[in-house]
């Protein structure tokens, strides 16, 4: 799409830490390239590589007989006592994600000049160049393997280096090297401790042009070769063994990969008019002075965020760390955390034209449905679906919980995880995914609520009890478990309405306003809001649902806006700041969105790799900021429903002018081009619909500003020129 501007990043020195390594991935395999010229490490990852800890066979607790007792206890202020009966063992984390090993490439030591390491987002290739030599790595989307090529680097020794940060000393490791007529193979088998039978195998097939290959113990040496090609695959023993690598040469492997990666990446482009001299800087220089380089930095982070999101979505959607880690001690087990983080990370998938991410999310949900059914039966004795708050990607059983974090009683999870797929279906018209997964799963979620909603309050309204607002606790309460959490209300109401159960939905209580006129986190007078919390679960009806919005429900939108302003940032986690920004965009508040962006840009959340951290000052490697930031920028520029398009709902001062191309809307219409200049009040846009349809187009979220009504013809670009006279 954009052949003019390079879309990638670069650094003038090798990565000092694994967190700084440039990334490549195909949704299953990933690599972290340090870019060292003498003793290179390329960390190899596999999305499904997990360390056994007992969670592989864990189920949700069998608490069905406890449900009515628990409800009585919650309604009479004895929730903690009742929940304590469930907690008979220490908190059981899901199985931890970990790296496989590293490809260690030792080259002859020599002086280094003209050094540059770079990642090309359009190709997915990470390259290191020095003194006319180069090494290149990519994760093939076509052939599901890691491809590494050495050109003019002299002699190279290859080993499998498994002693990475935090690796257990009692791993059972065996490495064998052998040569044959087609090259050489380095194979490492790793058995997890304890005789569990869990482990994995990593193969690296070596092909050489010219020169010779030698197997020496646990190493392969390439001598006098013009080019060396390494093809690496990981096989978790829980999965069927993969086929041998294809026999293609490097140009064909690369072209097969590019045919899938580049068209997907090129669908969307953001141009903020950054100076070319800023665009030419390394990522670390842009990060060092965000205020000076803001347009170039936001362009770079937008491009990198889409790249990392696409690269980490395949067999699964992204984990807390995408699909990368260089440590066996990954924070929070490197899980897929479903009560906030996962949905934030995939927030841009539909609008940013990445159906590959939505398909990964759909496959993840489909594989877990039987476990979600088991959760509903075991926890509540009911039909339907109950999703876990944490999952290792393989198991969907809800066994991660404690008294302080009773995540097993969170009932909104299935609806929350289906919501990105509802957006995908609206955006793409993907009837197969809707027919085979989304609609049936939503119907099963409705079955759960129909069976669950049996208690009523004094006003005759149905009660959601037990109810949990992740991961918060009402002020002064003895337990996080309460009644009528706003998130649960929104999920139940939307699920029942979407599946035709309007009468039952109408019996749910309305949202409650607290004493400050803000949307309350619990529609239950005894539950007092704790505003110093990182989660914003109670604003689920604003984002992503859109049930509350300034155009249709201005009074509730004002209450939600008040709630957003009252909420603190607690520990300044990246997901909290960007969740706030997404909600601010829906409420038409560019200033609050800009403040949240500034907190991330100025808080040192981004490594030179442009992957992010969970906390400020590069504390805890985590993909939340990297993957969510593109969604924030898109929401500032565009919001849509199946029959409405809102242009520039909340453009902050960070985005005074620019052009974005290729965004998708829930009207099944592409925003082929959007150019804006807020100082002049000018908006130029081109809309191209997939099918004939009528849409309304709004400039901003002011309900007093009348919209335009457009009749769009399929495949025919419709230009719009909007100026300050539009009122």
UniProtKB/TrEMBL annotation:
Keyword RNA-binding in the entry? The reply is: no
What range(s) does the Glycosyl hydrolase family 95 N-terminal domain occupy? 10-234
Q: Which UniProt keywords apply?
A: Hydrolase
Q: Where is the Glycosyl hydrolase family 95 catalytic domain?
A: 252-631
Q: Which Pfam families match?
A: Glyco_hyd_65N_2, Glyco_hydro_95_cat
Q: Source organism's superkingdom?
A: Bacteria
Organism of origin: Kitasatospora cineracea
BP GO terms, sorted: carbohydrate metabolic process
Report the protein name in the record: Glycosyl hydrolase family 65
GO MF annotation list: alpha-L-fucosidase activity
InterPro entries membership: 6-hairpin_glycosidase_sf, 6hp_glycosidase-like_sf, GH95_cat, GH95_N_dom
């Amino acid at each position: 799409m954009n052949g003019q501007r390079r879309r990638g990043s670069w650094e003038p020195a090798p990565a000092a830490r694994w967190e700084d390594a440039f990334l490549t991935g195909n949704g299953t395999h990933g690599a972290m390239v340090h870019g060292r010229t003498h003793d290179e490490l390329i960390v190899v990852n596999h999305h499904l590589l997990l360390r056994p800890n007992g969670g592989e066979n864990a189920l949700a607790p069998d608490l069905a007989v406890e449900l009515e007792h628990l409800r009585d206890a919650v309604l009479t202020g004895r929730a903690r006592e009742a929940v304590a009966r469930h907690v008979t063992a220490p908190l059981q984390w899901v199985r931890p994600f970990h790296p496989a090993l590293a490809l260690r490439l030792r080259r002859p030591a020599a002086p280094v000049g003209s050094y540059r390491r770079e990642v090309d987002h359009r190709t997915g290739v990470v390259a290191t160049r020095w003194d006319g030599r180069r090494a290149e790595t990519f994760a093939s989307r076509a052939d599901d393997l890691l491809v590494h090529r050495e050109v003019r680097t002299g002699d190279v020794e290859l080993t499998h280096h498994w002693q990475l940060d935090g690796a257990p000393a009692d791993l059972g490791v065996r490495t064998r090297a052998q040569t044959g007529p087609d090259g050489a193979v380095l194979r490492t088998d790793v058995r997890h401790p304890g005789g569990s039978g869990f482990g994995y195998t990593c193969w690296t097939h070596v092909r050489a042009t010219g020169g010779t290959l030698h197997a020496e113990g646990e190493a392969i040496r390439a001598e006098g070769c013009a080019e060396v090609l390494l093809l690496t695959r990981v096989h978790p023993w829980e999965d069927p063994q993969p086929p041998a690598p294809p026999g293609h040469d490097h140009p064909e492997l690369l072209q097969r990969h590019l045919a899938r990666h580049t068209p997907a990446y090129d669908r969307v482009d953001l141009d903020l008019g950054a100076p070319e001299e800023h665009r030419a800087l390394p990522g670390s220089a842009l990060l060092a002075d965000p205020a000076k380089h803001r347009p170039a930095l936001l362009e770079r982070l937008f491009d990198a965020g889409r790249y990392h999101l696409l690269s980490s979505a395949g067999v699964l959607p992204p984990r807390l760390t995408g699909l990368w880690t260089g440590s066996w001690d990954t924070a929070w087990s490197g899980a897929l955390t479903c009560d906030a983080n996962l949905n934030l990370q995939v927030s841009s998938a539909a609008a940013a034209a990445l159906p590959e991410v939505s398909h990964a999310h759909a496959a993840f949900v489909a594989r877990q449905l039987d476990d979600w059914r088991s959760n509903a039966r075991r926890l509540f004795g009911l039909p339907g679906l109950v999703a876990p708050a944490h999952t290792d990607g393989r198991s969907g059983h809800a066994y991660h919980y404690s008294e302080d974090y009773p995540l097993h009683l969170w009932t909104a999870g299935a609806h929350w995880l289906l919501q990105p797929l509802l957006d995908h279906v609206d955006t793409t018209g993907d009837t197969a995914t809707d027919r085979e997964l989304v609609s049936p799963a939503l119907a099963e979620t409705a079955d759960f609520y129909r069976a669950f909603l049996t208690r009523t309050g004094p006003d005759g309204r149905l009660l959601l009890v037990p109810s949990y607002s992740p991961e918060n606790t009402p002020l002064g309460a003895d337990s996080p478990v309460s009644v009528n959490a706003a998130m649960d209300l929104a999920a139940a109401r939307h699920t029942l309405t979407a599946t035709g159960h309007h009468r039952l939905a109408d019996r749910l209580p309305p949202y409650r306003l607290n004493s400050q006129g803000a949307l309350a986190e619990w529609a239950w007078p005894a539950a007092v809001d704790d505003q110093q919390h990182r989660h914003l679960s109670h604003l689920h009806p604003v984002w992503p649902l859109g049930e509350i919005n300034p155009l249709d429900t201005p009074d509730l939108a004002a209450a939600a806006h008040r709630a957003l302003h009252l909420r603190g940032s607690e520990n300044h986690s990246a997901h909290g700041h960007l969740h706030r920004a997404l909600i601010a965009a829906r409420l038409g508040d560019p200033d609050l969105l800009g403040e949240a962006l500034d907190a991330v840009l100025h808080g040192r959340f981004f490594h030179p790799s442009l992957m992010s951290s969970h906390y400020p000052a590069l504390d805890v490697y985590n993909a939340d900021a990297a993957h969510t930031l593109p969604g924030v920028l898109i929401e500032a520029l565009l919001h849509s429903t199946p029959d409405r398009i809102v242009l520039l709902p909340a453009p902050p001062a960070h985005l005074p002018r620019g052009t974005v191309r290729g965004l998708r809307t829930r009207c099944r219409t592409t925003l082929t081009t959007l150019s804006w200049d807020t100082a002049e009040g000018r908006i130029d846009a081109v809309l191209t619909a997939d099918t004939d349809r009528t849409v309304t187009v709004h400039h901003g979220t002011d309900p007093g500003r009348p919209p335009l009504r457009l009749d769009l013809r399929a495949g025919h670009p419709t230009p719009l020129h909007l100026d300050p006279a539009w009122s």
